[in-house]
Amino acid sequence: MATGKINVSVENIFPLIKKFLYSDHEIFLRELVSNATDATLKLKHLTNIGEASVEYGNPVIDIKVDKEGKKLHIKDQGIGMTGEEVEKYINQVAFSGAEEFLEKYKDSAKDSGIIGHFGLGFYSAFMVAEKVEIITKSYRDEPAVHWTCDGSPEFTIEPADKTERGTEIILHIAEDSTEFLEDSRINELLNKYNKFMPVPIKFGTRTEALPKPEDAPEDYKEETVEVDNIINNPNPAWTKQPSELEDEDYKNFYRELYPMQFDEPLFNIHLNVDYPFNLTGILYFPKLSADLQVQKDKIQLYQNQVFVTDNVEGIVPEFLTMLRGVIDSPDIPLNVSRSYLQADGAVKKISNYITRKVADKLKSLFTENREDFEAKWNDIKIVLEYGMLSEPKFYEKAGAFVLYPTVDEKYYTLEELKDKITANQTDKDGKLVVLYAGNKDEQHSYIAEAQDKGYEVLLLDSPIVSHLIQKLEADNENLTFVRVDADHVDNLIKKDEEKISKLNDEEKEKLKTTLEEIVPKATYTVQLEAMDSTAAPFRVTQPEFMRRMKEMSQSGGGGMFGMGNMPEMYNLVVNTNHDLASNILNTEDKAQQEALVKQALDLAKLSQNLLKGEELTAFVKRSFDLIK
User: Fold this and answer.
1) Nearest to 366 by CA among 398, 394, 392
2) Average pLDDT of the residues of the chain
3) How many CA atoms lie within 13 A of 339 on its CB side?
4) Can you point out the beta strands (E) in 484-536?
């Protein structure tokens, strides 16, 4: 039996690195600036622990475009490399200097912020460059070296006359990548990927006005000076402790993240944990509409202050992807190109932590200033309701702060609501009935009737309310939700008392037959009820179960048997104690009888906003004919 080792040829690896390793060629700049940052932070760490006897100073990463020479320069003042290190880290593909450094100094370098991991970032340069040069000098007292490669496995390495420590990478931009010789394009990429890198990044200069002297004459002309154009903020808010920040600091950082967003955030949640994983960040609750189709790519994911992606699904619970802000963790498992998340047990732990932290923050906001929390409820409710449905751990905590507003703008937690309505809204079977409206204006007459009986009516108008109340009913024994237009008011909460009808059984049967001959059977089921004589003669209602299942089916995930496509079905509730019922019954003229029924039906439909188009036109004409 023969054994051996599989040899991977560099000739074969290079095309893979150049064409397939990175999803987007623009990533090269992020990787090279990250490498420069690592080199700088390594030097900082070594000077801090006394292993480098050099002055750390105030190092800057300098980016320069030489459009005429078709070159892009990335220069740092970091640790640099010796000739031996160039051989080790550059000529051996996927040998990560950062990983080796962290292993060597694993105890003292834990919080150094060093980014590199796979050792492949440097080779992303060949996606846009036909030739790459490295001119580097180590912080140690060793000669500088000059490395050159044209993207083939061949390279040259020779002495260089560089006297300052650090590394300069020179990309000779290829003909198909000349976009990266444009200042605007480089500026765009630096702002996208490196806006919050921990080492200052210089890209050109800018003009800055000098302060006006206190004794300046009236004809004083403003003086200006050229200063380095530092494009990043090395110390963003999320890297600081919450105790170091005021409300205005959080708002300023929000404006820094979203310069084109003019609305202020409602509040923020500062994430800061170092066990069992490292994670920092700030999440903002923006003003949200009741529309679930909001943009879900507003949270930015960073790894050691390097931008990775704005698609955070997986690490951030789905219901929170509607928020904005930043999450930064060196422990997030990324693919080899640092472009997206890999499936990992740590991701779920981080997601659970974020869920718990958000729930705790919401509870504290509710407890500390309930009035302010209530004022913001309509702007945040869709996120919280979605969270209750999608995250069991959030649902467990939500009872302490999720609110249920009434049509009169009073706010209750579920337990408070139960206490409030138990005495008046418990039916004859001992079930607590929560009445609600979906639209205060369209269901106004139904709301008024319920309030006349002393009932509280909630206003639940989010697109997922049917799913939410279904879950609440399942988790709360003897509790049911009923929309105010699901039946006539006496049937919404059935009591023991029973009203007596003015019509006898024979008259009721005759009236029902008459109505069914006129009212469209495909849409309406005629239902005779004995009610107060002052109650509306005709009421159009939609059964709670049917309407709820249809809504759940339409909004996804909860309907039954395709009910979202079923035609609308309604009950026509006729008050047998109203004079109109008797008039219809006693009218001998069939045409007049039909006109009375149609007019009453249209009025009932009008109160449900169901009268539209041709039917509305006919109703208006008929109404004018009746009063002329």
Assistant:
1) 398
2) 84
3) 13
4) 524-529
- Tokens (6 digits) for 596: 């009375």
Distance CA 390, CA 354 (A): 14
What domains can you pick out in the chain, each with its CATH number? 11-205 (3.30.565.10), 237-376 (3.30.230.80), 403-492 (3.40.50), 505-545+558-627 (1.20.120.790)
Q: Which two tokens stand for residue 90?
A: 């550059």
Largest CA distance in the chain: 116
Look up residue 260 and give its amino acid: M
d(CA 64, CA 316): 37
**Confidence (pLDDT) at 112:** 44
Q: Could you give the 3-state DSSP secondary structure of residue 254?
A: helix
370-390 and 465-475 helices cross at what angle (nearest 10)? 80
The model's confidence at residue 293, banded by pLDDT at 50, 70 and 90, is: low
Instruction: Find, among 580, 571, 577, the residue nearest to 504 by Cα.
Output: 577
User: Taking Cα atoms as reference points, which of 445, 434, 366 lies closest to residue 403?
Assistant: 366
Phi, psi for 421 (deg, rounded to 5)? -105, -5
Give dist(CA 71, CA 180) in Å, integer: 9
- Burial pattern 250-275, b for ≥16 Cβ within 10 A else e, equals beebbeebbeeeeeebbbbbbbeeee
Q: What is the 3-state secondary structure (H, E, C) of 310-335?
A: CCCECCECHHHCCCEEEEECCCCCEC
Phi, psi of 453 (to 5 degrees): -95, 5
What's at 184, amino acid-wise? Answer: S
Residue 494 φ then ψ, to 5°: -70, 125
Q: Would you place residue 95 in the very low, low, confident or very high pLDDT band (cuts 50, 70, 90)?
A: very low
- At 434, phi and psi to the nearest 5? -95, 115
C-alpha–C-alpha distance, residues 454 and 61, integer Å: 71
- Cα–Cα distance for residue pair 494/492, rounded to 1 Å: 6
Which pLDDT does position 558 carry in this prediction? 46
